[in-house]
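Input chain follows. Return C-alpha cells only.
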Amino acid sequence: MLKRFVVPASDFPELPCASEGDVLTDDLELSEALTVVARHLHETDTPDHTMRTAVRLAVRLLPGAEHAGISVIERSGHRRTIAWTDEVVPAAEGRPAADRHRTPYWEHLWHTPVVHLADSENADEDGDAALAAAGLRSALALRLRTEKRRLTVLTAYSGKPRAFDATATRIGRLFTAHASLALDSVTVREQLTEAMRTRDLIGQATGILMERMNIDAAEAFDSLVRASQRENIKLRDLARRVVDAKRAD
C-alpha cells in the first residue's frame, strides 16, 4: 500500500526556481534543467521516495507553481493524496466537493493527460470551491501513471488565478514524462527485489518442511501451496510463518 508523506521544501540549488521568478530562457536551459531533474529522480530508491522528490522538483521547476501533490484517483471517484510539499495540498484535496452535481476538474484526466483549473472561484469556468476555501486559485494537473481502475496524478497549485500558461504546461508535460519513467523504473526494481526475497523465503520454508516431514522438495512445496490455499493466506506470508517458527524453536 502506498504511504502518505509530508514533504519539506527543498532548494535543489543547481536548478532555477520558477516560484522565485527564475525563467528558463531557451530550450538549452530547459534541457539542462531536465537532465538535472532526471538525475535526482533516478537516484531515488523506492516509489515513495520518487514521488516525494517529484513534488519538490515540480515546485522548483514549473512556472507559477507554489505547491504540488501527487494523488491516486480511483474509477469510483475517490481521491487520496500520497505525497505533497506542504499541508495545504492534502487539506484541499481531501475536502468534499461543494457542488455534488459538478464533475471535479481532475476527473477529466481520465480522457486527457493535462487539465487546467484557471480560477477556483469562477463558477463559470469549472471552479472548485474546496480549492478556493484553501486559498488555492489555480491548478495544473498532469497524469503520471494510467491503470485500468486508477490514475496517478501530479498537480501543481498556485494562490493566484490563471497562474499556469502554455510554458508551464509544456514544462509540466516534459517533467512528468521523466517522473513517470523514474517511477516505473524504481517500481520494477522494487518488485524484482521483493520477488528475490520471496523466492529465498519460500526456499527456506521448503527446506524446513523437507527436514521436518522427511519429504523431497517437490512434496514440501506442494504442502506449502495446499496449506496456503486451505488457510487463504499468501504463499509468501505462510513461508515467513514457517521460517519464523523455526527460528523461535
